[in-house]
Structure formats: structure tokens, C-alpha cells
Design goal:
Elements (H helix, E strand, L loop, with lengths): L3 H7 L17 H32 L3 H4 L14 H7 L2 H33 L6 H13 L4 H10 L17 H12 L3 H9 L4 H12 L1 H17 L2 H6 L9 H14 L1 H10 L11 H23 L1 H8 L6
Keywords: Cell membrane, Membrane, Transmembrane, Transmembrane helix, Transport
Protein name: ABC transporter (Permease)
Subcellular location: Cell membrane
Length: 321
């Protein structure tokens, strides 16, 4: 005898899906825990976003009005004079271009070279894999120091050149360990099948390992990109006399240093001109806020596109299949 569901199907009607029964009642302890999580996460979001939103509000506020204080989340007197002042500097655009070039080239070179080393020491047939790994890890704890590093860059004829930003960090030990852990978690049969088909080590690395290790590579690329973009101390050490090799972060550092040294004079000038509403000037506070937003905006734009790789790239490699 046909069931009611079968009769409905025979009549051209779809059988009704069983409804899910959700638990509506929670114990007082569960409700208290959910309330605590909501309050804690809400405070965490506020404490995390407020400094950035406050900095953005100050950068978009009139510098004359900012002297009064009391700016929190929204600008009180909206103005783009701070950004006009920053971008009228002739060195800013060239320094930004240098920062973009060092970030892109440095990230690509570092990720590729670190991945090659990681693949090499992940192979069980490589007899010196343990010795090479320990040697790399020791460099994370032992450093020659500032002066020996400077002398090394001088002997390599890298001082005063663009490649001084790239060569010293061509192999990132932490990055290499992350990629190696991920590669070791890949099924060995895939690599063996590529070798059976006649693929060499480099072809296996390029066509098999790299596509499978994209989550780890994207994670390392974000780490390296942020490091390259934010670096300014190496510019100060090696290329401070080369204006054509200055980066955006180094120009930011110089602008902040100059604004701090001239803060009293700038504040006095601000108060003296406060009666004239049409006077356009900036203060150290407005300069700091504006340059911070300008320097951090590219990373804020790129981060959401790579964030999804973080969990997979940092955890999957630690679990071998």
C-alpha cells in the first residue's frame, strides 16, 4: 500500500520536509554565558575600532577646530586640508611608488624562495634536512647585531641600492617553517604520482606543490607584505641619503619627527590664526592622523581578501593526513 508521501509524489506534489525542532529554552547558566560573550565581544570591537575611527575623524577634521579637542568618532568640521597638505609634498608620490615596488617585489621573491627551501627540507629523502632546519632555526635566536649587518651590506655593495630592501629578507625562517609544515601535510601519493609520470623536482614543485599550498603561501604573503610596507628602519640605515629610494613609511617618520620638534611653534601659530576661519594650516596632531591613515589604507584594503586563508594556512599544515 502506498504511503502518504508516495501518494503526494504521484499526485505531482513534493513531500514535505521534516521540520527541525530547535531548543528554545536555555538554562540560566547558558544565558549568562551568552550575555557575557556578547558584552565581551562588543567591548573588544569598540576598543579595537575606536582608535582607528578616532584617527580617521581627526584627519578629516579642520586642523584649526581640532585644537579644541573633543573629537571622537565623527569629524566636527569636515575638511580635506590635511590630505591636501600631505599630498602636496613632492616626495610623497615617489616614496609611495618605492614602497609599492618593494612590497610587491619583496613579497614575491620572499614567498617563492622560502617555498623552495621549505619544499626541499620537507622531502624525507633529503639527508641533511634536519641539520639545515636546525641551522635556519638558530638564526631566529642568534643575530650578528646592527654593525655586523651594516658591514655585510656594505661588503655586498647593497648600500645605496634598491635591493638592500629585498636581499636581506629573501628567506624568512618563520615563513619557511609555516610552508614546510603545510607541505608535509599534503598527501605523499600526489607527489609520487607526479614523479611516476616523469616530472622532475622543479616541475613537481611548480605544478603540484604550489597550487596545493596556496593557503600557506597567501598567509606568508600577507605577513611579508605587511612587513615590507611598514619597514622604515632599513631605509634610515642604508638609504637615508638617497631621496629617490625613500619609502612612504620613512617619509612618515620624518614628518612626524619634524612635527613633534615644531609642535610648540605650530600650536602658537594655530592659536594666532584661529580667528581667521579661512586660514589653512595643519597641526602635528592632524599630520600624524592623516599620515597614519594614508600609510595603513593599502593594508586595510588588501587584508580582507587574504584573511580567509589565515585559519587554513596556519592550522591545516600542522595536521598530517
Amino acid at each position: 500500500m502506498a504511503t502518504p508521501a508516495a501518494q503526494q509524489v504521484g499526485a505531482g506534489k513534493k513531500p514535505e520536509k521534516p521540520r527541525k525542532v530547535y531548543k528554545r529554552f536555555q538554562s540560566p547558566g547558558d544565558r549568562l554565558f551568552d550575555l557575557f560573550n556578547f558584552i565581551f565581544l562588543s567591548l573588544l570591537v569598540i576598543f579595537t575600532l575606536y582608535p582607528f575611527l578616532n584617527t580617521l575623524a581627526v584627519s578629516l577634521n579642520n586642523a584649526n577646530d581640532s585644537i579644541r579637542g573633543g573629537i571622537y568618532l565623527l569629524p566636527r568640521d569636515f575638511s580635506l586640508d590635511n590630505y591636501k597638505y600631505v599630498f602636496q609634498e613632492a616626495t610623497i608620490f615617489h616614496a609611495t611608488l618605492v614602497s609599492i615596488l618593494r612590497t610587491v617585489i619583496g613579497t614575491i621573491v620572499t614567498v617563492f624562495c622560502s617555498a623552495m627551501v621549505a619544499y626541499t627540507i620537507s622531502r624525507p629523502e633529503f639527508l641533511l634536512r634536519r641539520f639545515v632546519t636546525v641551522t635556519f632555526i638558530l638564526t631566529m635566536y642568534l643575530n650578528g647585531g646592527l654593525i655586523p649587518n651594516y658591514l655585510l651590506m656594505r661588503d655586498l655593495d647593497l648600500i645605496g641600492s634598491f635591493w638592500v630592501y629585498i636581499v636581506p629578507g629573501i628567506i624568512g625562517v618563520f615563513n619557511m617553517i609555516v610552508i614546510r609544515s603545510f607541505i608535509e601535510g599534503l598527501p605523499e601519493g600526489i607527489i609520487e604520482s607526479a614523479r611516476i609520470d616523469g616530472a622532475g623536482e622543479f616541475r613537481t614543485f611548480m605544478q603540484i606543490v604550489i597550487p596545493l599550498a596556496l593557503p600557506a603561501l597567501a598567509t606568508v604573503a600577507l605577513f611579508t607584505g605587511v612587513f615590507q610596507w611598514n619597514s622604515w628602519f632599513d631605509v634610515f640605515l642604508y638609504n637615508s641619503e638617497k631621496a629617490n629610494l625613500s619609502t612612504l613609511q620613512y617619509e612618515l617618520m620624518k614628518m612626524l619627527a619634524n612635527s613633534n620638534s615644531n609642535s610648540s611653534m605650530t600650536s602658537a601659530s594655530a592659536f594666532a590664526n584661529s580667528a581667521n576661519a579661512s586660514a589653512n594650516f595643519v597641526t602635528p596632531t592632524s599630520i600624524r592622523a592623516t599620515m597614519t591613515i594614508v600609510a595603513s589604507l593599502p593594508m586595510i584594503i588588501v587584508y580582507p581578501f587574504l584573511q580567509k586563508y589565515f585559519v587554513k594556512g596556519m592550522t591545516v599544515g600542522g595536521v598530517k593526513g
